[in-house]
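Ticket closed. Logging final result for Phospholipid/cholesterol/gamma-HCH transport system substrate-binding protein.
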Amino acid sequence: MKRRTSIVAGVAALAMLLTGCDFSVYSLPLPGGAKIKGPSYTVTVEFADVLDLVPKSSVKVDDVTVGTVEKVWLDGYVAKVRIKLPKSLALPDNTHATIRQTSLLGEKFVSLSRPTGSEQPRGKLDNGEVIPLSRTTSNVEVEEVLAALSLLLNGGGVAQLQIITQELNKALTGNEPAIRDVLTQLNTFVGTLDQNKARIVTAITAVDALAKKLNAQKATLATAIDSLPKSIATLDKQRAALVKTLQALATLGNTATRVITSAQKDLVANLQSLYPILTKLAEAGENLPKSLELLFTYPFPDQAAKAAKGDFTNLGITVDVNTQKALKGLLGLNLPTVGPTALPTGRISLPVHLPTSPGKSALPSLPVPTGTATTCITLLGLPVCTPKLNRSGFDPDLARALMPGAVQ
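Final structure:
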């Protein structure tokens, strides 16, 4: 009796000791579990559902046990699993995690895998990092498969398969050509879509770019839409005037059509008459504007002022004086051309200095040798001083009498 009492007391003391030390069965090593020797690091993995994963479960890479599960807990609606890995195991930072089973009814474990396909490995998985939900999955449980199958067999559509098959047979019987044609057209449609896949993608990209631009101009578009009612109201007020304007335009169009139709022959004749003139003007080319340059600088070309060096340009003037022809033309008299009573005739050549600089109101006189009598006249508005000629030469007084407008 004493022995039994001591055993019970010992068990109670051991239980109290284990309770005080926060003892858990998960702290005991499992048979066949991974034993990590040397340095290690921990990583937290997030799962939407950890199924019945428990601590001390295995962590495998390529179906080889490399680590162990230290802790499983719930954080909100996300299940988190802390795993322990050896320091010698190098995994990329974008490692994927999956909860799998060793067999159909075997234990669960965490499987780590490196990224495959178009995703390239990057970085290195270090201590304290987290593998998020976007890179974790869990396999379908056998219980889930059996539950779904039970739902299908008991209350699903399996019992209706015969009815569905019979109705399909009734619908298809006699309509084989039409159904075959529909399938052919559907095949052509899908093939055409596949051939134009690049264009469709380009069109979708262009629509996306347009949507972005419209979104950037959202405020402007909103302002324009807000101002549309006022614009429409203004147009509505001016509707009568717009209708009258359109009616007047229609009347104008009819009138113009009638006028053009009636004057068609004359218009064509006028255009045909203009054709030679326009042709000659086109043939004249650059000669016409060049000839007009002399109109404003007569009697000198436009380049004369540029060619002259200094303030004045020398000009030689030759004047033919025939008093007989002048008096005959003015008075109708026939005067003798020979004898002592004949009027003098002759030709003189005068050097004249003309200004080339603007603002010159007076012209210098012709230089005359010392001791020579001179006569000054105004020829075409220009002062000219020359040696006085005798009766056999040019007489300025006679020139003033015969040409009062030209010689003063």
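The CA atoms of residues 305 and 360 lie 14 Å apart. No further action required.
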